[in-house]
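FORM 7B: Structural annotation worksheet

SECTION A. Query
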Amino acid sequence: MLEVRGACGCRRSIRRRAQRLLLVIVLVVTCGAATTAAPAFARANPLAGRAMWIWVLSDVDGGNVSQIIATAHQYGIGTLMIKSSDGTSAWPQFNAGLVSELHAAGLRVCAWQYVYGNHPVTEAYLGAGAVKDGADCLLIDAESEYQGKYISAQTYIHRLRGLIGYSYPLALAGFPYIDYHPAFPYSVFLGPGGAQYNVPQMYWRDIGVTTDAVFAHTYSYNMVYNRPIYPLGQVFENPPGHQIVRFRELARAYGATGVSWWDWQDATSSNWSALSRPAGTLPGYIPDKVMADVGDGAQGDMVVWAQEHLVSAGYPIAISGDFGYHTLLEVEAFQTAHDLTADGIIGPDTWAALLQYRTARVDWVASGGQHAVVADARHAGQPTTAAATVVAPVPASAARRARRDEIAGAGGAGRPR
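SECTION B. Predicted structure
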């Protein structure tokens, strides 16, 4: 084998480097587009309608695909969301043959991967592998392990999008109560180039609230991120049928065009009946769709999100996740410029005005770096046509602890015990 010694004194193998380069090129080309063509019905929004999540395929009807198809048709399930990987481990249960068989039966198939953020590049390649196998969408199940990991989230999203393209349907399936998780990088997963869809895990019984309460709280905070919301309800813990029906009715009242359920292997016959029988409208019901306030003293990713929009609107402040004095002054200035009450509180009207501006693109770097706003932002007036670019250290709020893991009982990581 031909070898050379570089100026650094290290020996390098030309052949090995060439082989590695070829492997990378092959991976990028093959993962960049799915090779298993999906039928026309599957190319429609796979999150619309009724969907069911599958954790371990062999635990569902013994892994009998024909029986799974029959049950899905019986209960009006249009999309199956099947686990494809866990961290750095691909799950062979998700493969091109399975996808083709389900497509042939008229079902859409989405892959979901549980990600940890310790090896974001590998996780991105595994997600792209599921896309190559023909998945109609990819769902990112990112939970407690991802709290505080802004750089990992950024690395994962950038690499994944580079492999699957920016138009491929990508969804975040994360914590529903954003205010409970100040360190979680929602602004990366749901930010520029990230997921187009938001699938919050709204497990009311696990959280310990009513179906009405879980909708009000989830929508109040998630609407801020300006992504279509597709509620994920629960059939684990065997909720009463009337609660499942109520969840479906509320989803319709809140304007959701699709609902999915976690998860098939825990569903009882009464659960199946409740999620498939006719559910009516709620005449006179007014959904609680008012975006949550954020103001002086607040800390967390919602503040990061607000600061990103302020920068894009032309108010160059540090994106720190802390709503302090300088953020307060810039919010008041923004409100004055937009004929809003200058109270320094970002409420529904101020959010509506801020969200007219494209989100600033942030390049997160290790703590200790300098905040530097690259000018494309401009002061108040019309929304910018191109987002500002910001280089910033990981926000201080990334070190904050979660109030609680409100969906701890649902599982999803690894295999069920």
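SECTION C. Observations
The mean pLDDT is 89. The chain has two domains: 27-276, 301-399.

SECTION D. Sign-off
Analyst initials: ____
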